[in-house]
Design brief:
The chain has helices at about 1-15, 35-45, 45-50, 260-265, 270-280, 320-325, and strands at about 50-65, 70-80, 85-90, 95-100, 105, 110, 115-125, 130-140, 150-155, 160-165, 185-195, 200, 205-210, 215-220, 235, 240-245, 250-255, 290-295, 340, 350. The chain is mainly beta.
C-alpha cells in the first residue's frame, strides 16, 4: 500500500495535470490623444517660419512681481529667405499683443492659439534684413516646476522670480519665433525690476540704470547664438561677489544670508575650471563670464552661454577632480542636499549642489 502511494506521488510529480487552456483576450490599442492645436502650431516649421532666418532679439521687459505682470517689447531682426508678406511668431494666449510695429507703422496680425501670423503691407524680399517691434503685456500662465515663469518669495519673504520653459516653450512669457530650428546670432536682454531687486540674465552684464520711477533696468548682452527657451530671468535680492581665473571673470549672485557660505562653497570654482582645462582644453567662450546664482527651483538642461556639455559644468565634481584626479565622467557618490542652490557655470536655472568638506565629501 505504501509503495502504491509513493508510485502515485511520483506519477503526479512527473506528469502534472494538464492546465486548462486559457482564452486570450484581444488587446485593444489605445489611440494616443490628439495634440492640441496650439502645440501643432508651435511645433510645426511651416512656410511662414521657414521663409525667414532669425538674426537678433532685444527683449526689453518690465516685471511687476507683486501683480505677477509683464510688459515690454521684443525687437526682432530677421533676414528673409524667400519673398513673402507674412511671418509666424509666437505668444501664449494668456498674454496680450499691444501692437506690432514695422518702423512707425502698425502691422496687421492674426492669432491662432499661441501662434501669431504677422502680415506686412508689402512683400518682403529675399536676402533683405527687416526689423519689427512686438509689444506685449499681461499675466503669464504659471504651471509648476517647468511651467515657464515662477513668482514666489525667498526664505526671507522677498520677491523671487525665475523662468524655466524648455517644456512649454519660451513664448509662455515673451514673444519670439518659438522654434528650435532657428536661433538668433546674438541678443540683448533688458529687465526692469523694482529697486532693491537684481536681475541676472544670460550673457555679459552691461550695466544698470535707475529709471526714476521705482524701477531699475538691468542690461545683459549675449554674444553667441542662443535658443529661445534658454533666455532667462532670475530676479531676487541677490548680493554679488566676484573672482577671476586669469582673464576670465567669475561672478556669483547669492542671497545675502548665504554670502559667507557661498564664498566658502565657490572657493573651488577656479580649481574646477583648471581641472576642466586639463581634461577638455581651454575654456571656449572667453567673452562671457562664469555666472553662479542661487535660485528657487532645480532646472532644465540648458546652456544659455553656449557652454560645454553638462558633465563639464557641475561644480560638485571640482574638489574630486582636483584631489583625486578622476575623470569628469566618474560616477559620484549620492550626497545629501543642502539649501545652498546655485547655477553652475553657464547653467540657468539651477540644480542644488551639496556642501563639501576639504576632501570633497558631502
Amino acid at each position: 500500500m505504501v509503495n502504491a502511494v509513493v508510485a502515485l506521488a511520483v506519477a503526479v510529480a512527473l506528469f502534472p495535470a494538464r492546465a486548462r487552456p486559457q482564452t486570450s483576450r484581444p488587446v485593444t490599442a489605445q489611440a494616443a490623444p490628439a495634440p492640441a492645436r496650439a502645440d501643432v502650431l508651435r511645433g510645426a516649421y511651416g512656410p511662414h517660419r521657414a521663409n525667414n532666418d532669425l538674426l537678433y532679439y532685444h527683449l526689453d521687459v518690465r516685471v511687476d512681481p507683486e501683480k505677477k505682470f509683464l510688459s515690454g517689447k521684443n525687437t526682432i531682426r530677421f533676414k528673409m529667405l524667400k519673398d513673402d508678406a507674412r511671418i509666424q511668431l509666437d505668444l501664449h494666449a494668456a498674454l496680450n499683443i499691444d501692437k506690432i510695429l514695422f518702423g512707425a507703422a502698425p502691422l496687421a496680425y492674426e492669432r491662432d492659439a499661441g501662434a501669431v501670423f504677422v502680415t506686412f503691407p508689402r512683400t518682403l524680399k529675399a536676402g533683405r534684413v527687416y526689423s519689427i517691434d512686438f509689444h506685449y503685456s499681461g499675466n503669464p500662465a504659471e504651471a509648476g516646476r517647468f511651467g515657464g515663469i515662477t513668482f514666489r518669495k525667498d526664505p526671507s519673504g522677498r520677491d523671487w522670480v525665475n523662468t524655466s520653459c524648455q517644456d512649454v516653450g519660451a513664448s509662455v512669457w515673451w514673444p519670439n519665433k518659438d522654434q528650435w530650428r532657428d536661433e538668433v546670432e546674438g541678443m540683448r536682454i533688458s529687465v526692469a525690476v523694482p529697486n532693491g531687486l537684481v536681475d541676472v540674465s544670460n550673457g555679459k552684464f552691461v550695466g544698470k540704470t535707475d529709471l526714476g520711477d521705482g524701477y531699475t533696468r538691468w542690461d545683459w548682452h549675449v554674444q553667441y547664438p542662443i535658443n529661445n527657451y534658454n533666455v532667462s530671468l532670475n530676479i531676487g535680492n541677490y548680493t554679488h561677489f566676484a573672482d577671476r581665473l586669469g582673464d576670465l571673470p567669475l561672478d556669483f549672485y547669492v542671497l545675502p544670508e548665504n554670502l559667507e557660505r557661498a564664498k566658502k562653497q565657490f572657493a573651488q570654482s577656479r580649481g574646477t575650471l583648471e581641472a576642466f582645462r586639463h581634461y577638455f582644453g581651454e575654456y571656449p567662450f572667453e567673452r562671457l563670464p562664469e555666472v553662479h546664482e542661487r535660485l528657487q527651483v532645480e532646472g532644465q538642461e540648458s546652456a544659455p552661454h553656449r557652454r560645454p556639455p553638462r558633465r563639464q559644468r557641475h561644480p560638485a565634481v571640482g574638489p574630486v577632480l582636483q584631489r583625486r584626479a578622476l575623470p569628469a565622467h566618474a560616477p559620484q557618490r549620492r550626497r545629501r542636499r543642502k539649501t545652498l542652490a546655485v547655477v553652475a557655470p553657464g547653467f540657468l536655472p539651477a540644480f542644488q549642489v551639496p556642501e563639501l568638506d576639504d576632501r570633497g565629501r558631502g
